[in-house]
Amino acid sequence: MIKEIQRKCASGYLALVILPVLFIFDGWFFYEAIQAQSLFMVISAALILIVLLVCCAGFFMVHPNQARVLTLFGTYVGSARDTGLRWANPFYAKKAVSLRVRNFDCDPLKVNDSSGNPIEIAAVVVWKVVDSAEAVFEVDDYISFVEIQSEAALRNLATSYPYEAQDDEIALRSNPQQIADELKTEVQDRLEKAGVLVIEARISHLAYAPEIASAMLKRQQAQAVVAARRQIVDGAVGMVKMALTELKEQDVIELDDERKAAMVSNLLVVLCGEENAQPVLNTGTLYS
């Protein structure tokens, strides 16, 4: 793998002073050559002029959070990161690579979770280039590489976990931070070879696919109703048990098994009913 080599380049401002002086000197030399009528001096002045014009191609700018990848006839010679006007070998090819932080907002993907349910999922990946040489030479187009590999990592993650948790398992909806950390790790592993650092990766959209969304909503509502009923029944049983215990300990009334069963039945109806209970007065006894 080609790793980045930071290369120091000459200040462009210094070259901007030296080159005009050399042009003036060459003009004076050319004038003296004509006065002396020396063909050798004229040719030398012309050659010096050509060299100075070629040297002018060595100027280039490096903006903040930018690197210039320098190559000489196809050979990587280093990357310039010092900002400002710089000057280097005019035969260097100078490719600009942005080191700024970027966002990639993945479009919603339709995949099946680990339970086989079709879902829609999307993510936001925050990344930046940290090795300009790898970004340029190890992959053909590092921006496209980031997008494709991020989508592939998101698909793989979505198929590895269920949408909703069953018992204590990890799920896409109930463990967002853990899922985000794993997504970041997987995307980073895929982009390591491109000289890219993943700063953050987080799911931005998560939903059931439209064709099953209605059915899944009904299932979620049913699960919520069952859970609520279970909690109500647990609380009612505890209250009935407490009432019977208090009646016995304080010796308020002695109840046989049949009367206890009737009392438990009445209390559970009152405590578990959705509507307010309507009392019925019994003017007789329990047995007639």
**Range of strand content:** 15-25%
Unreliable spans are none
Distance between the termini: 95 Å
What gross morphology would you assign?
rod-shaped
Question: How many beta-strand runs?
Answer: 10
Number of helices: 7
**Which series of helices and strands comes N to C?**
EHHEEEEEEEEHHHEHH
Q: From the helix content, strand content and strand pairing, which structural class follows?
A: alpha+beta
Major sheet attributes: 4 strands, antiparallel
Look at the structure and give the mean pLDDT.
81
Q: Compute the gyration radius: what is it? A: 39 Å
Helix coverage percent: 40-55%
What does this structure look like?
By secondary structure, this protein is α+β, with helices and mostly antiparallel strands. It contains seven helices and ten strands. The strands form three sheets. Strands 7, 8, 9 and 10 form a four-stranded antiparallel sheet that branches. A three-stranded antiparallel sheet has the order 1-5-2. Helix 4 crosses helix 5 and helix 6 packs across helix 7 (257-272). The longest helix has 40 residues, at 210-249. It is rod-shaped, with a radius of gyration of 39 Å. The model has no long low-confidence stretch (mean pLDDT 81).
Q: What's a quick, concise take on this entry?
A:
The chain has 288 residues and is α+β, with helices and mostly antiparallel strands. It contains 7 helices and 10 strands. The strands form 3 sheets. Strands 7, 8, 9 and 10 form a 4-stranded antiparallel β-sheet that branches.
